[in-house]
């Protein structure tokens, strides 16, 4: 990764200003928390965009540019009309100025894409450099890392690696647009069956204007031989990103899917409203991991991404297993509840989450586990870290339906507070309608103990490293759920995001 | 005309006769309260804090007085209040100061306030509002609350509250024996709105019992619905020690909407025991706020519902100041098609450092159709805090059942014993033995196999 370019292009003046009243004591933790956002560069490439604003015409235009079949246009229009009747949710523990939905560009594509790159070699080299800066293992790097990547840049997918090798197993891994062209029957069959277009305000908006995303189909009995991965990036100004991911694992299939996100540093807020749908049939297993590092805004809360995402998995078949793992360190505001509907008997749902909010970030995140089948099991493990003036909320729902005989849930949800101006909230809801169910919820809130810090420091570990160690220890149970490369990245990211938070 | 309009009309018809009607501040407050109620209506699921309990049905609910024409059924239907009270007192021969209300109004002939220490005032709210001379009125004005407190049912209560208890304890005054407030339903008045005001100055001590006994009504063929709204406001001054025990055993057709609103001064200790066994729908809002450092609170609760009944406890502990500690324990037994709801919120304000909060809610589902909802919430804006909460929902543990059966207890008996044991933990936190006994009797009356259980317990205890 070329760090020099990264810094040159985006980082404004970073010369430290002299503190008028210097603190005689060193403030290692304080400094630690001040690190800059390293993915905040802008790439200069020509883009093909539709005018700002949202109307039926814009929806038609997006659909036309993508050459979609009529059923999808109708589907989009229905979602748009539905969205018009809805109002944005107010219940989350976040505050932000009203979003002007007419001030957003709903479609922005790198221009050279017009004729469609035939292979990675045709992709705009500027674009490839961007991904290189981000450390996306596209191209040759992908081969080395053994990861198949679908990279989504602003609104369109720019290239999917390893397509051929996956194709030999009958696995379809492509951009959503390609899937619409090549496999309309699968799209028609599964799209919107987990997150219906009218599910909530942001999901309805996404259904109307979604531009691209990833599509994964693992046929019966196939174990996907490699990790699949998508990298999302918002580049253009004033654009929103509305991607849609659909993953289907047929009977006995299994897949592990990774997702990473970044955006340039801009003073305005940008909207990201994605929808992810997972479908697991009998004995199928889907593992979905996210490392979310959208631009969080600066220290004073200026700019940053609004990350309003609907993610839901449907354990449709018996003995199916869906697992969500997320590390949320970016975004000015995160509003996201990856959920699992445990429909099939003996199905399993997991949610492992680390959410960090520093400076003025706000995160309202959690999960829903809806137990419908017999002997369904779910585990929720949530670690929230609040620092600076950040606010971190866990919001969860565990619902056991009357037919969910023998259902079992265990929820553990811990908050770590760093600094006396941050906030940590826990709002779990438990609804049980079956007496054979066993549901347990535990939550704790504490701060990094002075004695813990003292112990580490008297062993010669700097305060900075000590905090990093303690925080990593706090998150360990979640990190170990991540694929290896991601776990390393997540730990680093956490260190970077926390810099300057303890003093 | 919608039901809300009926309430408003009823208010205007009654306003002149309500106690304190001559007081301008109160008349204004009542007017604002009824306007707020008319504006907001009954809470529905969409309202914050009402997601699991909707009062939308109240729109169509009528509270007609039972037909008083002399048919035999209605005569059997109600027990005389005096009998109820005698039953209550004879059971336990409990000492204390008794303030009795029938149909929402003070019944002086049934009440028996013993000798109170100097500096302690105990009367009905109506009496307190009538005495303008000794500055009582201004104290009542301060303690009465405002039309904006709580949710719309609390506003309806503020508008229509006709009576309740008024207790004032001067600095350092301790009332040794419990003060019993008994609210007996009578067959003629189907709605009652009660407001209890407690002002405990620095260092004062008292134990308060708020009891809604089953008046033995409800034996008629078509027992009508009744509505009780109750608001109890307690101001505990610095270092005051106040215990509040509420025993709700209303009839099966009753709707019971109650609020307990507490303010705690520096170093004060407050305990609430909320035992909810009766009513078709019971909703309890319990709130306390630490206005000074070093306060302590215990919120202890136990509920049992069966049939198609519904019980909902919403608690809020506001750690507004540093170095306070709170302990909260709720246990629920849910049988039949019933639904038990618990939502407990703990807020730790910015700079309320060294707050220590612990909360638990455990539910036992006793039937296939029962439902338990729990929503424990932590909202924390300070970092040097110790906060934890836990919630469980489950059924009787098979291993425990097996253990008891291996000791020769039959399954039914073993099951009943385990159910009782689950609930008994909540009873054990009640300090006064006489009150604990009364609470236990109320619980046993609810549980299956109570006689056998009592025998068993006699042997053990």
Report on this structure.
By secondary structure, chain A is an alpha/beta fold. Chain A folds into 2 domains: 1-11 and 25-39 and 452-503, no CATH class; 45-336, no CATH class. Chain A has helices at 3-10, 28-32, 56-65, 70-84, 125-134, 139-145, 163-168, 176-182, 184-190, 201-209, 450-458, 463-479, 484-498; strands spanning 47-49, 108-110, 147-153, 156-160, 172-175, 214-218, 227-233, 244-249, 254-262, 269-272, 275-280, 285-292, 304-315, 321-328, 333-336, 339-342, 348-357, 362-371, 377-387, 391-400, 408-418, 423-432, 438-447. In chain A, strands 5, 6, 8, 10, 11, 13, 15, 16, 18, 20 and 22 form an 11-stranded mixed sheet that branches. Chain A has a 10-stranded mixed sheet with strand order 4-3-7-9-12-14-17-19-21-23, with helices on one face. Chain A has a two-stranded antiparallel ribbon with strand order 1-2. Chain B is α/β, with parallel strands linked by helices and 461 residues long. Chain B folds into 2 domains: 3-63 and 78-292, no CATH class; 399-461, no CATH class. Chain B is globular. The N and C termini of chain B lie far apart (58 Å). In chain B, 51% of the residues are buried. Classes of the chains: A alpha/beta (503), B alpha/beta (461). The A-B interface holds A 91, 93, 400, 402, 415, 417-447 and B 48, 51-52, 350-351, 353, 363, 365-395.
């Amino acid at each position: 990764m070329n760090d020099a370019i990264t810094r040159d292009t985006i980082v404004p003046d970073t010369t430290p200003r002299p503190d008028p009243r210097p603190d005689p004591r060193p403030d290692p933790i304080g400094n630690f928390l001040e690190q800059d956002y390293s993915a905040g560069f802008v790439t200069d490439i020509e883009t093909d965009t539709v005018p700002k604003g949202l109307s039926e015409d814009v929806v038609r235009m997006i659909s036309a540019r993508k050459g979609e079949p009529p059923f999808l246009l109708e589907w989009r229009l229905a979602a748009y009309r539905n969205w018009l009747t809805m109002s944005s949710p107010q219940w989350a523990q976040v505050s932000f100025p009203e979003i002007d939905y007419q001030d957003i560009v709903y479609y922005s594509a790198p221009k050279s894409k017009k004729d469609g790159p035939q292979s990675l070699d045709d992709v705009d080299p500027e674009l490839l450099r961007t991904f290189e800066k981000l450390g996306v293992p596209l191209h040759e790097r992908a081969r080395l890392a053994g990861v198949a990547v679908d990279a989504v840049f602003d609104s369109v997918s720019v290239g999917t690696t390893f397509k051929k090798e996956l194709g030999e197993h009958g696995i379809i891994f492509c951009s959503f647009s390609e899937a619409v062209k090549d496999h309309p029957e699968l799209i028609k069959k599964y799209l919107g069956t987990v997150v219906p277009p009218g599910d909530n305000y942001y999901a309805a908006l996404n259904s109307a204007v979604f531009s691209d995303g990833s599509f994964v189909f693992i046929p019966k009995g196939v174990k996907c031989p490699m990790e699949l991965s998508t990298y999302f990036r918002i580049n253009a100004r004033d654009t929103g990103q509305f991607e849609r991911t659909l993953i289907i694992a047929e009977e006995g299939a299994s897949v592990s899917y990774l997702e990473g996100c970044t955006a340039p540093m801009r003073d305005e807020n940008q909207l990201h409203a994605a929808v992810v749908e997972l479908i697991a049939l009998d004995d199928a297993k889907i593992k979905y991991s996210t490392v979310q590092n959208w631009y969080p805004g600066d220290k004073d809360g200026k700019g940053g991404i609004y990350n309003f995402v609907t993610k839901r998995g449907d354990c449709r078949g018996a003995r199916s297993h869906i697992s969500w793992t997320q590390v949320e360190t970016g975004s000015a505001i995160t509003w996201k509840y990856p959920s699992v509907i445990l429909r099939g008997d003996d199905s399993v749902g997991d949610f492992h989450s680390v959410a960090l909010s520093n400076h003025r970030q706000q995160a309202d995140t959690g999960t829903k586990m809806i137990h419908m089948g017999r002997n369904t099991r779910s585990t929720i493990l949530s670690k929230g870290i609040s620092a600076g003036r950040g606010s971190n909320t866990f919001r969860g729902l565990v619902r056991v339906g009357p037919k969910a005989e023998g259902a079992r849930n265990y929820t553990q949800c811990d908050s770590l507070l760093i600094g006396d101006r941050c906030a940590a909230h826990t709002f779990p809801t438990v609804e049980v309608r079956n007496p054979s169910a066993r549901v347990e919820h535990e939550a704790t809130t504490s701060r990094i103990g002075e004695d813990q810090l003292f112990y580490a420091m008297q062993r010669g570990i700097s305060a900075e490293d000590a905090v990093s160690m303690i925080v990593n220890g706090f998150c360990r149970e979640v990190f170990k759920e991540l694929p290896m490369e991601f776990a390393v990245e997540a730990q680093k990211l956490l260190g970077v995001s926390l810099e300057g938070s303890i003093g | 005309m919608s039901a809300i309009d009926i309430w408003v009309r009823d208010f205007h018809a009654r306003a002149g006769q309500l106690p304190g009607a001559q007081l301008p501040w109160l008349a204004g407050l009542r007017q604002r309260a009824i306007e707020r109620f008319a504006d907001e209506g009954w809470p529905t699921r969409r309202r914050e804090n009402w997601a699991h309990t909707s009062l939308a049905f109240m729109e169509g609910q009528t509270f007609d007085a039972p037909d008083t024409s002399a048919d035999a059924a209605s005569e059997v239907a109600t027990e005389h209040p005096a009998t109820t009270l005698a039953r209550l007192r004879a059971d336990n021969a409990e000492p204390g100061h008794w303030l009795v209300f029938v149909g929402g109004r003070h019944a002086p002939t049934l009440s028996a306030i013993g000798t109170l220490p100097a500096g302690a005032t105990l009367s009905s709210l109506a009496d307190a509002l009538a005495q303008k001379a000794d500055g009582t009125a201004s104290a009542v004005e301060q303690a009465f609350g405002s039309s904006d407190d709580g949710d719309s049912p609390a506003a309806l209560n503020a508008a229509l509250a006709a009576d309740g208890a008024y207790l004032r304890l001067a600095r350092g005054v301790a009332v040794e024996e419990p003060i019993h407030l008994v609210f007996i339903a009578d067959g003629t008045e189907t709605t009652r709105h009660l407001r209890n005001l407690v002002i405990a100055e620095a260092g004062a001590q008292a134990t308060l019992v708020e009891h809604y006994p089953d008046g033995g009504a409800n034996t008629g063929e078509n027992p009508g619905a009744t509505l009780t709204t109750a608001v109890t406001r307690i101001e505990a001054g610095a270092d005051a020690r106040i215990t509040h025990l509420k025993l709700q055993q209303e009839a099966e057709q009753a709707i019971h909407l109650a609020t307990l609103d507490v303010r705690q001064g520096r170093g004060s200790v407050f305990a609430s025991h909320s035992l909810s066994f009766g009513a078709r729908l019971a909703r309890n809002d319990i709130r306390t706020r630490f206005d000074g450092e070093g306060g302590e609170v215990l919120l202890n609760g136990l509920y049992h519902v069966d049939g198609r009944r519904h019980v909902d406890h919403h608690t809020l502990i506001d750690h507004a100041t540093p170095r306070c500690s709170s302990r909260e324990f709720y246990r629920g037994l849910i049988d039949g098609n019933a639904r038990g709801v618990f939502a407990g919120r703990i807020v730790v304000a910015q700079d309320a450092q060294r707050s220590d909060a612990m909360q638990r809610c455990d539910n036992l589902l006793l039937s296939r159709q029962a439902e338990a909802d729990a929503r424990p919430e932590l909202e924390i804006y300070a970092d040097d805090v110790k906060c934890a909460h836990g919630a469980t929902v489950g059924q009787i543990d098979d291993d425990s059942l097996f253990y008891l059966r291996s000791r020769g207890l039959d399954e039914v008996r073993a099951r009943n014993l385990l159910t009782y044991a689950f609930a008994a933990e909540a009873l054990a936190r009640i300090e006064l033995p006489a009150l604990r006994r009364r609470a236990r009797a109320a619980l046993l009356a609810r549980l299956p196999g109570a006689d056998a259980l009592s025998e068993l317990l006699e042997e053990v205890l």
